[in-house]
Design a protein that fits this description.
Largest sheet: 6 strands, mixed
Radius of gyration: 27 Å
Number of strands: 35
Length: about 625
């Protein structure tokens, strides 16, 4: 099996990607590199209140100061690495200190971070960001290596294995550059550090706000914007790594919020607005973006608390309502390790369906949202065990709501079908245990008028050359009868770059239905059309995908490898999924008129494709 592996490991990791921009609040501190500067004496408390001074380590040959954040995904995944480095170099006289300078992190947050990750060195609180300002620290995790004279000899990232790019977090299958470890070894050997500065990715440090002023306040405007677009995920128990339900929670993340909103990384939405209208469009309006920018520029004033909007109410627990049946992936939880790559896990379950089922709504729920990247639940009929025979029934991924059919529409599942759970786990720095499940609400067959059809347009016979930065793959499907289109969903893996759905109508005209110019594997979004779209018989649905297999793609497992189709994330897929109904189907009218309902068939085989490996089909 190929060892080139890479995963997209945390939903919000993608959102917190660095752009290399130094924000206003830390610009002065970061204008010059701290390398070569001597660090003055300081004293900071740990989460228990015990003071630690720089002079306490005067007998150490070197000191590593690592800035961390209790809620930063990258700081979490690097915590075990810091602990391992401390164990490696402590016998050689190197001390490690972790420093949390975040305004939003309480002492209990810091204590929890230290305990969960079993850090063997002090974790200190930098009140008022004084040490962070002196060193010019901007992000977490960012490290500073001091020699015996307490002069900074290295600053930047820990190594190259975990990181961000715009739109994706990544884990390289092999650690190539041990930047901090190499710098420590050179300092201990009395040599110059060969790479004294390497840019650190990470979350912006939440600094203390001073001289807050302005008419745009959290209470009067910003809380409303966040409730409208962000709090659905940014609240306790949901997928986001921090909450946005109070001023104290938000103010420390203000600069980070400004960065990701300004760059268009949050909220997650990747469709070109020039094509199509979608019911689940998550974008902020221009006015909302301006309010956030103005608030941050004014120092993030809280304002009059009496102007706060009422807290938004969300459905707790099952979003589809109480399910008629809940099916778990297995009886015992699956253990997700603290680090590394976990291959896709498959679990087959018999739900005990001895009769045909009509599924009105389905909701896949992670047992532990912090480590579940996505869930796909397939149906597998009697005697079927290959991928092509599976029918998608439910799924979960960041940004994807549960599937609820319109009244009178349901998904047909034949009796005797089994469920196959595909789970993608993303380690986050500590061991977790997951037992995911799926819930169903069933429709009475007497109320079902239309059958929801799952379709796909795809290509499986492709080979992406090494180093190719814009490799194109096309696939086509011809509709054999009038079809009412409901949703579209592109799917590729870590080399996915862009994806477009285009309808080529029988009259010779063409229309772009969905264009995703910057595909992001971390967000498996399905785009629901605001209004169902009639696709006439004879229309060809063409999907065009581009892949980046070059070294410029930081998420690329191995730019030197030829890449072909496969299930795992270091392989590739090219599928354009869609859902539809037959505009002429009325099962109840069929029963009343002729005594029999229209027949529901299995997904069709390939109708028309770009090559021998293309796959397309729908339930006709």
């Amino acid at each position: 099996m190929r060892r080139a592996r890479l995963i997209a490991w945390s939903t919000l990791l993608a959102a917190l990607a660095t752009t290399g921009r130094v924000d206003r609040g830390v610009a002065a501190a970061a204008e010059q590199s701290p390398v070569g500067r001597k660090v003055a004496a300081f004293s900071l408390p740990d989460h228990r209140g015990k003071q630690f001074a720089l002079d306490d380590f005067k007998d150490k040959r070197a000191i590593v100061i690592a800035f961390v954040g209790a809620e930063c995904p990258l700081a979490k995944v690097y915590a075990p690495r810091l602990a391992a480095l401390a164990a490696e170099f402590a016998p050689q006289g190197v001390a490690f200190l972790a420093v949390d300078a975040n305004l939003q992190d309480s002492l209990s947050d810091i204590a929890g971070f230290a305990q969960v990750h079993k850090l063997p060195f002090p974790v200190l609180k930098d009140l008022g960001n004084q040490l962070a300002d002196k060193l010019g620290a901007t992000r977490t995790p960012e490290v500073f290596l001091l020699d015996a004279d307490r002069t900074v000899r290295y600053c930047g990232r820990i190594d190259d294995q975990y990181g961000f790019k715009t739109g994706a977090g990544y884990v390289k299958p092999k650690l190539n550059e041990r930047n901090l470890a190499d710098a420590i070894a050179e300092v201990l050997a009395g040599k110059p550090v060969s790479k004294p500065t390497v840019k650190a990715d990470g979350c912006l440090i939440g600094r203390v706000k001073r001289d807050a002023k302005g008419d745009v306040t959290y209470s009067n405007q910003i809380a409303r914007v966040l409730q409208d677009r962000c709090v659905h995920c940014h609240r306790a128990g949901e997928i986001a790594p921090f909450s946005m339900t109070s001023y104290d929670e938000v103010v420390g993340w203000a600069e980070m919020i400004g960065e990701v909103v300004g760059d268009g990384r949050m909220p997650p939405w990747f469709a070109d607005p020039r094509h199509g209208h979608f019911a689940n469009d998550a974008r902020l309006t221009a006015d909302q973006k301006q309010l956030i920018a103005t608030w941050i520029a004014g120092g993030c004033p809280e304002g009059d608390k009496s102007q706060l909007p009422p807290p938004r109410q969300f459905a707790e627990g099952w979003q589809i309502g109480v399910p008629d049946q809940v099916v778990y992936m297995r009886d015992e939880p699956f253990e997700v390790p603290a680090e590394g790559v976990v291959e896709y896990q498959f679990f087959t379950v018999d739900p005990g369906w001895t009769e045909d089922k009509w599924v009105q709504a389905s909701e896949a729920r992670p047992g532990d949202r912090s480590v579940v990247h996505h869930i796909i639940v397939f149906t597998r009929g009697k005697g079927e065990d290959d991928f092509a025979a599976r029918g998608g029934l439910s799924g979960y991924a960041p940004g994807t709501p549960p599937h609820i059919n319109a009244p009178g529409v349901a998904t047909f599942v034949p009796a005797g079908s089994k469920l196959v759970f595909q789970l993608h786990y993303t380690p986050n720095g500590s061991v977790h245990h997951d037992r995911s499940c799926v819930g169903f609400k069933f429709a009475d067959p007497k109320t079902v008028k239309k059958t929801l059809r799952d379709g796909l347009v795809g290509e499986v016979a492709f080979k992406i050359p090494p180093g190719e930065g814009n490799f194109e793959v096309k696939a086509r499907h011809k509709f054999l009868k009038d079809t009412m289109l409901l949703s579209l969903m592109p799917h590729m893996h870590l080399r996915g770059k862009s994806f477009k759905f285009e309808a080529q109508y029988p009259d010779g005209t063409a229309e772009t239905l969905l264009d995703v110019p910057s595909y992001d594997f971390n967000w498996q979004l399905r785009y629901y059309l605001t209004e169902p779209k009639l696709i006439p018989k004879g229309t060809r649905l063409e999907c065009t995908a581009h892949f980046d297999n070059s070294a410029e793609n930081l998420a690329n497992p191995n730019p030197a490898e030829t890449v072909s189709f496969g299930d795992q994330t270091w392989e590739e897929m090219m599928f354009g999924f869609y859902t539809s109904v037959d505009p002429k189907e009325d099962r109840q009218a069929g029963i009343l008129a002729g005594g029999r309902a229209p027949k529901t068939e299995k997904p069709a085989a390939a109708a028309e494709g770009a090559g021998s490996g293309s796959t397309s089909g729908q339930r006709e």
